[in-house]
Write a structure and sequence with these properties.
By secondary structure, this protein is mostly helical. Helix content is 74%, strand content 2%. It contains 24 helices and 2 strands. Strands 1-2 form a two-stranded antiparallel ribbon.
């Protein structure tokens, strides 16, 4: 990088630290301020912050690798997690359901659902521990991705590059909590958006892909193999039933492509119906009303749609580089840094790298802040020191953040690449957690013991599979973790008594979920029950518009930068129809009621 690029990056990094530190006084008022911004943050800031937190370096690198090697088929693979289809569920009903609980964390929510006696305590403790483990895994993902990217530019070991990024992000995260996270994310989001526009225009004006070209795919033995593809196949709008990846390729597990995509859709549906967690859920706990929970989701999703043109543009420039130089980029995960080195001019490169560093740090700060809340609110304050002062709780928040990061740094030493940790997060440890998270919303008989046992068994299965299972297909990892969790849920529920009826009744009246609520519904007045039924009916119909709407929205942006105009026309027509359905069944019914 030239001197001017380095100056731009230094000025940018200094600016975000200052923005975070300015918020320190507000955040230090108490843990409600530190973790939820006193529920006074505007919906557009929460939505913009969510978009920035979802646009991370590691995810951008792995998604670019998939699009480069597989074209739009890579987009459909990333339905497993990278497309963030859970946003459709949060937008329609899961966001408001969570917000109505008026809690700070998902673990605290367990007392709301299962009561404050032993049953609720067990569920809350297990939920908090599981969430902290997931946070460590997510920070590990950040460490590997950010280190691989930044280390390549600074000419240092990836681990040292990660530590540098962590120190900078921790400076304002520890000081200012969610206030600092959200407002620095908004600031960083402007950088990210500028990067998206520049790279998309560059790709569209520079690249005209030929009818046939070469890409590269990784092999199981660590090598890479160049394969020939066609533009029509690479940019196709619909997923095929089968692929023909070479035997021994890490992508060969997706050759039965139709089955893989249906499996991922099933997994995402369960995940979406579970209500999410971590930093995503924190935004909804911080929302001021049902209406603002919906608006922040809509804004978040629309902003997130711009990420996919960015990813497609990087992939196109990576292919173009291979054509121009006669040397195909071997490692798909290095397409991103290769493009930046070769096609971004001096000065602009500084802004671009600053924007990508912004993306990395916004993911990191959100994840760490949300993860620390589980220790402080759900373990330390609730069970260890109930009378702790606000000053003590803020100190514990900062110490918990440091411990989470140190554990992630140690864990990162055992991971070889980004896809390995992302696959385990989405299809292993995540699968071990979300089965009980799904059931808790829809079945009255499910109790806190079932939740605790199901979560513990699923997490243990995921960890043991990772530690001792050797190389294993993602769907097998998913089935082992989720299957174990389901068995634990059923056994734990039926071997213990049901939750107290008063607790169930309060939960149902406040949350108003659909599902199997048996005698709980008979206690609700007829007119109120009618309103609940109407809301549930609209939400169920709306989700069938929202999921394809999000997929089509993201695909449309990709097809624009790929200049596949016939696909753009078809997708736009479909987008109009889906948007009309979404407006009719969801948007016009957004509640303006504020529940405080």
């Amino acid at each position: 990088m030239a001197t001017i690029d380095i100056i731009i990056i230094v000025v940018y990094l200094s600016a975000i630290v200052v923005v975070g530190l300015v918020m320190q006084k507000k955040a230090s008022a108490g843990i409600d301020s530190y973790f939820l911004g006193n529920r006074k943050l505007p919906w557009w800031a929460l939505g913009a912050s969510g978009m920035a937190s979802n646009t991370d370096i590691a995810g951008t690198m792995i998604n670019t690798a998939f699009i480069y090697a597989l074209g739009t088929k890579g987009f459909f693979i990333e339905i497993r997690g990278g497309v963030t289809l859970i946003m459709a569920f949060l937008m329609v009903f899961m966001g408001k359901w969570n917000r109505r609980s008026q809690v700070m964390t998902q673990a605290e929510w367990m007392h709301f659902r299962f009561g404050t006696k032993k049953e609720g305590d067990v569920a809350r403790i297990i939920s908090a521990i599981a969430a902290i483990i997931m946070t460590v895994a997510m920070v590990t993902y950040f460490v590997i991705g950010a280190g691989k990217f930044i280390g390549d530019y600074l000419g240092i070991e990836p681990l040292y590059a990660s530590i540098l990024m962590i120190i900078l992000a921790m400076t304002y995260t520890l000081a200012s909590g969610l206030y600092g996270v959200v407002w620095t994310d908004v600031f960083q989001g402007i950088f990210i958006f500028g990067v998206i526009i520049y790279i998309s225009v560059l790709a569209m004006t520079t690249v005209d892909l030929p009818d046939e070209f070469l890409v590269s795919v990784p092999m199981m033995d660590g090598s890479f193999t160049a394969i020939k593809t066609t533009l029509a196949e690479w940019s196709r709008m619909t997923p095929p039933q089968e692929m023909n990846m070479p035997e021994g390729s890490t992508f060969s597990i997706y050759n039965l492509f139709g089955i893989a995509i249906m499996f991922y859709l099933f997994k995402v549906t369960l995940e979406g119906a579970s209500g999410a967690g971590g930093y995503m859920l924190q935004r909804y706990f911080a929302a001021r009303s049902d209406r603002e929970a919906g608006l922040l989701s809509l804004f978040w999703t629309c902003l997130l749609a711009f990420r996919w043109p960015l990813i497609a543009s990087f992939a196109m420039l990576g292919i173009y580089h291979g054509i121009e130089t006669g040397t195909v980029i071997a490692d798909p995960e290095l397409v991103l840094p290769t493009v930046i080195k070769n096609y971004i001019p001096v000065g602009v490169k500084g802004f671009l790298i600053a924007g990508l560093m912004a993306a990395a740090m916004s993911t990191f700060d959100s994840t760490v802040n949300a993860g620390a809340a589980y220790w402080v609110k759900d373990l330390y304050q609730t069970y260890l020191r109930p009378n702790a002062s606000e000053k003590d709780l803020i100190l514990q928040s900062r110490l918990a953040s440091l411990v989470i990061v140190l554990l992630a740094l140690l864990f990162s030493l055992t991971i070889s690449n980004i896809n390995e940790i992302w696959g385990w997060i989405t299809m292993g440890i995540g699968a071990g957690m979300f089965i009980p998270q799904v059931i808790r919303w829809y079945w009255w008989r499910f109790n806190g013991y079932g939740f605790a046992i199901g979560t513990a068994v699923g997490m243990i299965a995921a960890v043991l599979t990772k530690g001792f299972g050797g190389p294993i297909a993602e769907y097998n990892s998913f089935l082992i973790a989720s299957g174990s969790s389901l068995v634990g849920c059923i056994l734990g529920t039926y071997l213990t008594p049901p939750t107290e009826s008063a607790v169930l009744s309060n939960f149902y009246k406040v949350t108003r979920p659909f599902g199997f609520w048996g005698s709980v519904r008979t206690e609700i007045p007829t007119d109120v029950l009618h309103q609940i039924n109407e809301e549930n009916r609209r939400d169920i119909i709306a989700i069938f518009f929202a999921v394809p709407w999000q997929v089509v929205l993201f695909l449309t942006g990709m097809m624009i930068v790929m200049k596949q105009w016939s696909n753009v026309f078809n997708l736009f027509g479909l987008l109009v129809v889906l948007s009309a359905g979404l407006y009719w069944f969801w948007y016009r019914h957004l509640s303006k009621e504020v529940r405080l």
